[in-house]
Amino acid sequence: xxxxxxxxxIIAATDSGDEASISAHPGETxxxxxxxxxxxxFGAHASPDEYEILIGDVxxxxxxxxxxxxxxxxGSEVIVQKIDVHRG
Amino acid sequence: xxxxxxxxxxxxxxxxxxxxxSRLRLGDPRREGLEVFIAVPVAEVxxxxxxxxxxxxxxxVAPLLDFVDPDDPTRRGAPYWPKFATAPxxxxxxxxxxxxxxxxxxxxGYHLHNSHRAERFEPAAWTLxxxxxxxxxxxxxxxxYQGRGL
Lengths: 88, 150
Description:
Number of helices of chain A: 1
Number of strands of chain B: 9
Radius of gyration of chain A: 13 Å
Strand content of chain A: 25-35%
CATH topology of chain A: Ubiquitin-like (UB roll)
Oligomer: heterodimer
Helix content of chain B: 25-40%
Helix content of chain A: 10-25%
Structural class of chain B: alpha+beta
Number of helices of chain B: 3
Radius of gyration of chain B: 14 Å
CATH architecture of chain A: Roll
Structural class of chain A: alpha+beta
């Protein structure tokens, strides 16, 4: 029987659809995933505090949840986007 | 801009759009010529709304976002939009047609509006996938749902 992998790949996409593969482990927090994804997708200068994670069509509110408790699994896809958009 | 070139660019960006719609729990996009249709569910409503992205001159200009009558997609405009309390709605006239606009960058209405016409953006600001994300923002970030029609 195959051992459950302790290393996951999460697909993080920007609001424009650009994607990056992020390595993570199940016990890592959503906050840690957010930081890694923001830096991978938007560059080291980008501030994670300006971004949010969508899991499905729902914004993740509790970033202290582990990936596992947030319902993610190896291969899950999330969206990382600016918290709000400019409104004219 | 050549329609064939716009179609090639739509096809180039299609996989990213389809993936984004899937992530955001929107309907699968479908294309008719230069128009892209996306079913947009709203939490309190049984039947989804139907958005259309009019992509003539894509991606030299942004898609024109409108909503249609799902039973007759030739009928479009204010009566077919979902209304949300804090959505930045406005309207512009394109020829004889008055089009509601979601006044945020990435929609053609925003970029055509007199208040924003001088602003400069790259085409990356209005990918098809980004339009899908704006549909999510409209239905999830712009206040309480207030009914069908503006």
